[in-house]
């Protein structure tokens, strides 16, 4: 009798899933480069002679006041543009848990556990630092998020030969991380709740769900319904980005039996994802970064104040230490109790490199900082600087680890290109093809 194959900790997914994730990674890598350019441009403007013009642009108010939508451009970026980002995140989450590899509990165990550890430990370290230094606890969720676009931009430079299994692990971890960020925003950062607008949002959301279940793609029908849903959720006091997630969850992943079933082709969720991911990664998130990341650096004195401030220090420690520690501990415990093996050719240092890279928290971290301390406040500016600092340190440390492992990744890439025989030679004949 053939021995039962043990669960692979970082094994490759199915072929269809691998191809789909590779396509997502290419788009997110480009988006990460645009995000980096936008963030640098914001910092340059905020610390240049044009800083007042930049501040005036961020605070410029547009929108109908009768509907309480006369918001600043910075607020439109965080509430409006990021709703597109979270709509795509909702599509991706539903796709992963309905038709992706996460529908298999055995495959889902490792990235889900890693994501949970990567949220809990940074939050605890933030609270520990602020309790010891008499800081403010309400920013505890700021260092818990991973920015997949920014992380992939780092990989494009330092980890070009990173095996597909590791890239898939990072993307899946970030997907689950997004889900927990959505729950945190909805539960912990809703300052006031108006029940009537929230209940009223169910009507356009329900009509939207019925139409997409019938595979209606007409933008002139769906876009107004989505806009009304967003406006009502915004009026309820729940952060408006949650509307994007709910709309994404409403879109079907698989074709119905009447439409030919799963064998007839991809569902509407995949169609919308292909259409809206470039808008999210290439337009919405970079614009949000440009309107949010511009903070005065303050020179050497600013760095000293940053390290002496409990909130800022808690964010940096959470991103640089908490994220990798939580992910590594959770992954090790999962491997211990499920008796999973790391895929041949890989090692725990590879998990560590990705865990450090997960400390690159940008988009959602900036958003949570704004929700915790108020957009445009002095504390918000300091938290943004802490997020930028922690993300930069995490990116540099991850780059060093990935570069040190580049030779091993090159061997694995050559083996994958050579086919099964090459893979067999890399692992010294220890694994059957």
TrEMBL record:
<keyword id="KW-0472">Membrane</keyword>
<feature type="transmembrane region" description="Helical">
    <location>
        <begin position="29"/>
        <end position="46"/>
    </location>
</feature>
<keyword id="KW-0813">Transport</keyword>
<keyword id="KW-1003">Cell membrane</keyword>
<feature type="transmembrane region" description="Helical">
    <location>
        <begin position="195"/>
        <end position="212"/>
    </location>
</feature>
<dbReference type="Pfam" id="PF06965">
    <property type="entry name" value="Na_H_antiport_1"/>
</dbReference>
<keyword id="KW-0812">Transmembrane</keyword>
<keyword id="KW-0050">Antiport</keyword>
<keyword id="KW-0406">Ion transport</keyword>
<comment type="function">
    <text>Na(+)/H(+) antiporter that extrudes sodium in exchange for external protons.</text>
</comment>
<feature type="transmembrane region" description="Helical">
    <location>
        <begin position="170"/>
        <end position="189"/>
    </location>
</feature>
<keyword id="KW-0739">Sodium transport</keyword>
<protein>
    <recommendedName>
        <fullName>Na(+)/H(+) antiporter NhaA</fullName>
    </recommendedName>
</protein>
<dbReference type="InterPro" id="IPR004670">
    <property type="entry name" value="NhaA"/>
</dbReference>
<dbReference type="InterPro" id="IPR023171">
    <property type="entry name" value="Na/H_antiporter_dom_sf"/>
</dbReference>
<feature type="transmembrane region" description="Helical">
    <location>
        <begin position="279"/>
        <end position="299"/>
    </location>
</feature>
<feature type="transmembrane region" description="Helical">
    <location>
        <begin position="140"/>
        <end position="158"/>
    </location>
</feature>
<comment type="similarity">
    <text>Belongs to the NhaA Na(+)/H(+) (TC 2.A.33) antiporter family.</text>
</comment>
<feature type="transmembrane region" description="Helical">
    <location>
        <begin position="385"/>
        <end position="404"/>
    </location>
</feature>
<feature type="transmembrane region" description="Helical">
    <location>
        <begin position="347"/>
        <end position="373"/>
    </location>
</feature>
<feature type="transmembrane region" description="Helical">
    <location>
        <begin position="311"/>
        <end position="335"/>
    </location>
</feature>
<feature type="transmembrane region" description="Helical">
    <location>
        <begin position="66"/>
        <end position="88"/>
    </location>
</feature>
<feature type="transmembrane region" description="Helical">
    <location>
        <begin position="108"/>
        <end position="128"/>
    </location>
</feature>
<keyword id="KW-0915">Sodium</keyword>
<keyword id="KW-1133">Transmembrane helix</keyword>
């Amino acid at each position: 009798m053939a021995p039962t194959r043990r669960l692979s900790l970082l094994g490759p997914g199915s072929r269809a899933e691998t191809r789909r994730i590779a396509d997502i990674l290419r788009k997110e890598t480009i988006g990460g480069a645009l995000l980096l350019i936008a963030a640098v441009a914001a910092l340059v403007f905020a610390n240049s002679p044009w800083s007042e013009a930049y501040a005036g642009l961020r605070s410029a108010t547009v929108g109908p006041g009768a509907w309480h939508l006369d918001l600043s451009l910075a607020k439109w970026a965080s509430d409006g543009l990021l709703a597109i980002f979270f709509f795509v995140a909702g599509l991706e989450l539903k796709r992963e848990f309905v038709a992706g590899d996460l529908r298999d509990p055995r495959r889902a165990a490792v990235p889900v556990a890693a994501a949970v550890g990567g949220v809990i430990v940074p939050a605890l370290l933030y609270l520990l630092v602020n309790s010891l230094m008499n800081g403010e606890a309400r920013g505890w969720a700021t260092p818990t998020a991973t920015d997949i676009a920014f992380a992939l931009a780092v990989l494009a430079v330092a980890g070009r030969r990173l095996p597909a299994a590791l890239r898939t692990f990072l993307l899946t971890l970030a997907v689950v991380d997004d889900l927990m960020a959505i729950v945190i925003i909805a539960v912990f950062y809703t300052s006031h709740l108006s029940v009537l607008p929230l209940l009223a949002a169910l009507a356009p959301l329900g009509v939207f769900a019925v139409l997409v279940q019938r595979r209606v793609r007409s933008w002139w029908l769906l876009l107004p319904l989505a806009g009304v849903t967003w406006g009502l959720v915004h009026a309820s006091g729940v952060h408006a980005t949650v509307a994007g997630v709910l709309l994404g969850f409403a879109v079907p992943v698989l074709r119905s039996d009447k439409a030919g079933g799963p064998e007839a082709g991809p569902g509407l969720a995949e169609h919308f994802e292909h259409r809206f991911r470039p808008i999210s990664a290439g337009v919405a998130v970079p614009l949000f970064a440009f309107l949010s990341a511009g903070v005065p650096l303050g020179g050497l004195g600013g760095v000293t104040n940053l390290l002496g401030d409990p909130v800022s220090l808690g964010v940096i420690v959470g991103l640089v230490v908490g994220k990798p520690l939580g992910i590594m501990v959770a992954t090790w415990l999962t491997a211990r109790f499920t008796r999973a093996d790391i895929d041949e050719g890989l090692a725990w240092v590879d998990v560590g490199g990705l865990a450090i890279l997960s400390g690159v928290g940008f988009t959602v971290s900036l958003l949570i900082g704004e929700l915790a301390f108020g957009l445009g406040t002095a504390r918000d500016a300091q938290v943004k600087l802490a997020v930028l600092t922690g993300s930069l340190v995490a990116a540099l440390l991850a780059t060093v680890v990935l570069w040190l492992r580049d030779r091993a990744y090159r061997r694995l890439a050559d083996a994958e290109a050579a086919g099964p025989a090459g893979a067999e030679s890399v692992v010294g004949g220890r694994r059957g093809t």
